[in-house]
Fold this sequence. Notes:
The complex is a heterodimer of chains A (100) and B (384).
Chain A: H1 9-20, E1 24-27, E2 34-38, E3 45-48, H2 51-56, H3 58-65, H4 77-88
Chain B: E1 23-29, E2 39-43, E3 46-52, E4 58-62, E5 76-78, E6 81-83, E7 90-91, E8 97-99, E9 114-115, E10 117-120, E11 123-128, E12 156-163, H1 168-172, H2 179-182, E13 186-196, E14 199-208, E15 222-231, E16 235-244, E17 247-261, E18 264-273, H3 281-306, H4 324-332, H5 343-346, E19 349-353, H6 356-379
Antiparallel strand pairs in B: 1-11, 2-3, 3-4, 4-9, 5-6, 6-7, 7-8, 10-11, 12-18, 13-14, 13-19, 14-15, 15-16, 16-17, 17-18
Bound molecules: FE2/S2 (inorganic) cluster and fe (ii) ion (FE2).
Amino acid sequence: MASFVPTSAETLADLRRYTEDRLVEVACLDCLARVRVKKNSDHHTSVQWSAEARSACQELGRRDQGPGGRDVHKPCARLMASIDDAVRAGAVPVGAYDGY
Amino acid sequence: MTDTATPARSLDQGTTPLRFARGWHCLGLASAFADGKPHAVHGFGTKLVVWQGGDGELNVLDGYCRHMGGDLTQGEVKGDHIACPFHDWRWGGDGKCKEIPYARRVPLRARTQRYETVVRNGQLLIWHDPEGSAADHEVLPPELPDVMSDKYTPWSWHTREINGSHCRELIDNVADMAHFYYVHFAFPTSFRNIFDGHTATQFMESKGRPDTMGGGYGDENSTLKSVATYYGPSYMINWLEVDYKGFVTEVVLVNCHIPTGPESFTLQYGISVRKPEGLDEQTCAYIAERYTQSFGDGFLQDVAIWENKVAVQNPLLCEEDGPVYQLRRWYEQFYVDVADIKPEMTDRFEFEVDTTKANEYWHAEVAENLAKRAASEAAAPADA
Ligand code: FES
Ligand SMILES: [Fe+2]
């Protein structure tokens, strides 16, 4: 059962554009996680995980075991470093040609 | 060349869901219900009755008696049960009718809608699921042991009814970087979102604008470090470190809501402040009251926008905007049947907003505003 129902087909196209376009696969240099990344600028980063990647990351797994609370959800530093490496190597194009 | 390639964009207002979200919802401070009297709470398109039985348990049932529809919130607590004012049928916290004083026996089918309850962080939470599943204790918000100790001030709790908006408007705030400048009068200097499973988090650092008189986020002397996580669809814990002229205060804000109808909800928020060392109770209470006031004002700034905007299913975004589409994809998981939850609704997603350009433009605008103000002050007589 759908909940918030769009009334036009263009809305679905937008949804795809904003959530799926231009994602590039990047592998973590320290574990088996492979995520999909988009960069609109040097400071912007969008990272889409999958369940498989999430369970490969030991850092996130460790945090899941601890008590909940502030900061448990913050990014894995090793994955972020791997993404920076991939960007430096030119594997992830930087820039939003489509305005986003 | 005229721009015929880009037709005018239409606003897709979509349709709002027919159901209310699955998850834990906070009804208020548990102590507010612990007086042996029935209490009415509007929620989920009906009215709920909340009471504490003689055994000390807090109970929540649908507010309308299944006999002839009497209003249980106007009834009376008798022993552990709630008694209906119409014909005195007695209902237990397990949803079963326990006694009908004038009847030989209670019909076996005499069961009403009950809600599982948990008291967490001093607040009464109930599980709501249109599919009727058993409460999922794995997705409860975490305990805040420090806040419940005398290191922190007691919750200062407030309630506000919002009409004419779906509660998703409130959720959208999680990914909305730019509104902190325009609506809350602060420069968001760092802004990041992480959605993961049933949680959605906003990490933000901000500094108040010097050209506005805003309280809360907008005080020019204060810098904020904020981590705000939704645990499920309606309960957010916001950890705030407020640096006011070098004096750092830790504030915990709970922001939660109960949907009341398809286009209305009740917003509730509570504030607790870590008591600064060396200050007496009265001063601590004063500081807590000030933060309550200013963050309360912050909510009102949002409310003024919600009350006048329209719903939009197809927001048009620019590079400096946060991940609204992904946030809503996350939020959708609470509105579909469990069997229909898609992996992308719960898969971890991280987004860092580039705030550098926005802050350059905003600082220039603020400098201009300050210069204009100085010029008009110089031109006008001081005592006018
Ligand atoms: S309607 Fe409640 S007892 Fe009759
Ligand atoms: Fe807001």
